[in-house]
Design brief:
GO terms for molecular function: 3-deoxy-7-phosphoheptulonate synthase activity. By secondary structure, the protein is α/β, with parallel strands linked by helices. It is built from ten helices and ten strands. Helix 3 runs parallel beside helix 4 and helix 9 runs parallel beside helix 10. The structure holds erythose-4-phosphate (E4P) and phosphoenolpyruvate (PEP).
Length: 358
Amino acid sequence: MTITAENPTQTADRRVLSYSALPTPNEILGEQPLGEAREALVERSRTEIADVLAGRDDRLLVVVGPCSVHDPEAALDYAGRLATLAEEVSEDLLIVMRVYFEKPRTTVGWKGLINDPALDGSYDIPRGLRTARKLLLDVLDLGLPVGCEFLEPTSPQYIADAVSWGAIGARTTESQVHRQLVSGLSMPVGFKNGTDGEVQVAVDGCRSAASRHVFFGTDAEGRASVVETAGNTDCHVILRGGSGGPNHDTGSVASAVASVAKVGLPGLVMVDASHANSGKSHERQAEVVSELAARIGAGEQGISGVMIESFIEAGAQSVEAAELVYGKSVTDACIDWDTTEDGVRALAAGVRGGRRAE
Ligand SMILES: O=C[C@H](O)[C@H](O)COP(=O)(O)O
Ligand SMILES: C=C(OP(=O)(O)O)C(=O)O
C-alpha cells in the first residue's frame, strides 16, 4: 500500500473492510423533529419515572414490551394495546413501553433494528436510525413513554430526545464507555446486574454515572469531540438473575436494596421478570410477575419497578425463519398479550394491596 494523504499509514485498519459516513444526528432530527407535544410527554414522564424510582411517587414503574423491535408495524399495534392498558392502571402503575432497537449478543446474532433493519445482513444503519426514530415518535403519539437499551455509544444522539427511561444491559454494565455515556443522558437509567449475577457492578455503574466525566464522543454534527458531562443522579439497579440462578426473591431484593442504600442511593430496585430470572422461559416469566405482584401486595418494600418481556404472541421464533409469525419475538421469548394484561393488572392490584398493608 502506498502512503498518501488519504492513507497516511500502512499499519492501521488492516482488518477494516470499509467506512461509510452516517447522516449526522442533526440531519435525522431535522427530518423527524420531536415537536412540542411529544417533548412535553418525554419531560413529564422522565420526572414521574425519577419520582417513582426515588420513592417520591408510590406507583410501580413497569417497563414492558418486546425483547426487541423487528417489525415496526407489530410494535405499533402492541403500543396501541398497551396505551389503553396504561391508562386503565395509571393510578397504580407508571407504564413505559420497552422499545429496544439494540441487542447485545452473547456471541453473534442479529444486533437489532438499527444495525440491520431488513434482518438480512444488509446492515442499512441509516435506514435503521430513521425507522427507529419514526417508531419512537409514533409510540409517543399514542401517549406512551418509551424505554430503550443504549448499546452503541453514538446512537443516543439520534434518538435519546424521544426516550424517557434507559437501560444498560448485563453485558455492558461494567463498561466505562457505557457509564460515561449514562453520565450525559437526560433520562433515568437502570444498570442490570452482571451476567454472572454480580449486583455490585450495577451499583458501581450507578455511582460512576452520577459523576462528571470527560471522554471521546461525537457532537450533533457528527464531529469527533471531547464530551464533558455533569453526571446522571437518576440511576438505579435492575436485578435480572445470573449464571447462578434467579435473584428476584425477597432475600436477593433485600440484599440489593442494602447495597444501593450503602452508597447513598434510594433503597429501591427494579426486578426484571425475564432473562436469568425466568431462565428465558416465557411461562416462568408469567409466574415471576404473579409472585412479584403477590409480594408487593403483601407489603414487601424495596421494589420500585418491574421489567417484562411481552409481545402479541407468546414465545420466540428464529430471525432466520422463512416466514415470520406476526407479533412474535425474534430474540428472547415473550409472554403474549392476554398474559401481559393479566400480569399488569395483577401488579396494579398488588400496589393497591401494598398501600393497604402499610
Ligand atoms: O435480551 C436479549 C438477550 O438475552 C441478549 O441480547 C443476549 O442474547 P443471546 O444470548 O441470544 O445472544
Ligand atoms: C439484553 C437484555 O437484558 P440483559 O442485559 O439482562 O441480558 C434486555 O433486557 O434486552
